[in-house]
């Protein structure tokens, strides 16, 4: 029999999650089921995105979210899809979302977990067929099971994440996640409707030659950031900026590089949100051997003060993040 004529299709996400769960004898399977729920919602959102140009679901929704940003119809659709999946699954007692002002009580008090989610990242790229994504963080609740979700459940530091991941709706659709034991990437096979393991044990190069930043904001950056960017130019690094955090992050994860979203006078804490953008990617990048800081401290050590808190972000290859962070920390040292 010539096996080469029909190559195996590989490991499905479901099978991979089940196999991982078997390694933990006391695992209840709830986290596994939650990851499956997110993957299913991701498939549905992927379908909506692929058809957006044909249906009347591109463009603005005509509303602003809590950050005062214009919501796109797909922002709203993705938010509904993910929250519905999380609510129906029963493993989650509370959700915070970029698109919702308040903590959502799923009405499932027995849910062991809370989720922070950016249902659609890169909204400005939706209508022009450029890669967009979804970002999620999963935490174990602090309040007792059986009771209503509380604010403290979603105000934990990023290091308390039990899992985090993103979906990238790009030239192919991928799901990348970690449960704290390495980072694994899965590619969606639309004809089979399944994610297959395509990138096991992802490691980010310790150094890189790509810098990703919105250089249109250059004049407003701190002097030290300007200096760093000038150095990148002098070293003939490549500037790569899609404007979808997930897509920029994903590229740098594989190729090595740094993504920067520094503060400016008009956005003193930058633009990105700690709870459902920075934390998940910080967990992933550290698991892949990279780093993430706000310029002073590790993102995963930051204690959130509000649901939609913003923070500056420097994330990517270890050496690059160390270089800019060390320089920014020097700025804050008292002169001796
Ligand atoms: P969102 O679409 O979820 O609001 O996020 C957009 C974010 C992020 O994806 C991207 O990196 C950044 O905004 C781009 O901001 P600028 O347009 O200011 O560069
Ligand atoms: Mn976003
Ligand atoms: Mn978003």
Q: What does this molecule look like?
A:
- The protein is α+β, with helices and mostly antiparallel strands.
- It has 2 domains: 8-199, Fructose-1,6-Bisphosphatase, Chain A, domain 1; 210-332, 3-Layer(aba) Sandwich (D-Maltodextrin-Binding Protein, domain 2).
- It is built from 8 helices and 15 strands.
- It has helices at residues 13-22, 30-51, 73-89, 151-154, 223-234, 245-255, 274-287, 318-332, and strands at 60-64, 70-72, 92-97, 104-105, 113-121, 132-140, 161-169, 173-178, 183-189, 194-199, 210-212, 238-239, 258-261, 291-293, 313-316.
- The protein has an 8-stranded mixed beta sheet with strand order 4-3-5-6-7-8-9-10, with helices on both faces. Strands 12-11-13-15-14 form a 5-stranded mixed beta sheet, with helices on both faces. A two-stranded antiparallel ribbon has the order 1-2.
- Strand 7 and strand 8 (173-178) form a beta hairpin.
- Helix 2 packs antiparallel against helix 3 (73-89).
- The longest helix has 22 residues, at 30-51.
- Residues 118, 121, 245, 277 line the site of one manganese (II) ion.
Give the helix proportion (percent range): 25-40%
Total count of helical runs of at least 4 residues: 8
Query: What is the fold-level CATH name, i.e. the topology of the largest domain?
Result: Fructose-1,6-Bisphosphatase, Chain A, domain 1
Give the helices and strands as they follow along the chain. HHEEHEEEEHEEEEEHEHEHEEH
Average of the residue pLDDT scores: 94
* Widest sheet, order of strands: 4-3-5-6-7-8-9-10
Poorly predicted residue ranges: none
CATH class annotation of the largest domain: Alpha Beta
DSSP summary, beta strand count: 15
Largest sheet: 8 strands, mixed
Ligands (ions, cofactors included): 2,5-anhydro-1,6-di-O-phosphono-D-glucitol, manganese (II) ion
Q: Strand pairing plus helix content: what structural class?
A: alpha+beta
Beta-strand content:
15-25%
**Overall structural domain count:** 2
- What is the C-alpha radius of gyration, as a whole number of Å? 20 Å
Which superfamily, in CATH terms, is the homologous superfamily of the largest domain?
Fructose-1,6-Bisphosphatase, subunit A, domain 1
């Amino acid at each position: 029999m010539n096996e080469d004529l029909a190559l195996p299709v590989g490991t499905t996400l479901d099978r991979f999650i089940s196999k991982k769960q078997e390694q933990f004898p006391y695992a209840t399977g709830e986290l596994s089921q939650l990851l499956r729920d997110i993957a299913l919602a991701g498939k549905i959102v992927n379908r909506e995105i692929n058809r957006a140009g044909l249906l009347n679901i591109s463009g603005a929704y005509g509303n602003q979210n809590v950050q005062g940003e214009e919501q796109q119809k797909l922002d709203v659709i993705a938010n509904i899809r993910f929250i519905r999946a999380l609510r129906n699954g029963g493993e989650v007692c509370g959700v915070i979302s970029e698109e919702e002002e308040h903590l959502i009580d799923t009405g499932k008090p027995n849910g062991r977990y809370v989720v922070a989610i950016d249902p659609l990242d890169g909204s400005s790229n939706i209508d022009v067929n450029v890669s967009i994504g979804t970002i999620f963080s999963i935490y174990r609740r602090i309040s007792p099971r059986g009771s209503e979700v509380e604010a403290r459940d979603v105000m934990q530091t990023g290091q308390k994440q039990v899992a985090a991941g993103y979906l990238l709706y790009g030239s192919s659709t991928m799901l990348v996640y970690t449960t704290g034991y390495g980072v694994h990437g899965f590619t969606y096979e639309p004809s089979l409707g399944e994610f297959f393991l395509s990138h096991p044990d992802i490691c980010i190069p310790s150094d890189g030659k790509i810098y990703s930043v919105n250089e249109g904001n250059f004049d407003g950056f701190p002097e030290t950031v300007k200096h760093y960017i000038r150095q990148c130019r002098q070293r003939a690094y490549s500037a790569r900026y899609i404007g979808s955090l997930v897509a920029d992050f994903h590229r740098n994860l594989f190729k090595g590089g740094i993504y920067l979203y520094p503060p400016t006078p008009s956005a003193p804490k930058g633009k990105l949100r700690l709870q459902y953008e920075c934390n998940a990617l910080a967990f992933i990048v550290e698991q892949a051997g990279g780093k993430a800081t706000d310029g002073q401290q590790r993102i995963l050590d930051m204690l959130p003060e509000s649901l939609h808190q913003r923070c500056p972000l420097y994330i990517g290859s270890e050496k690059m993040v160390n270089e800019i962070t060390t320089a920014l920390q020097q700025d804050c040292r008292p002169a001796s």
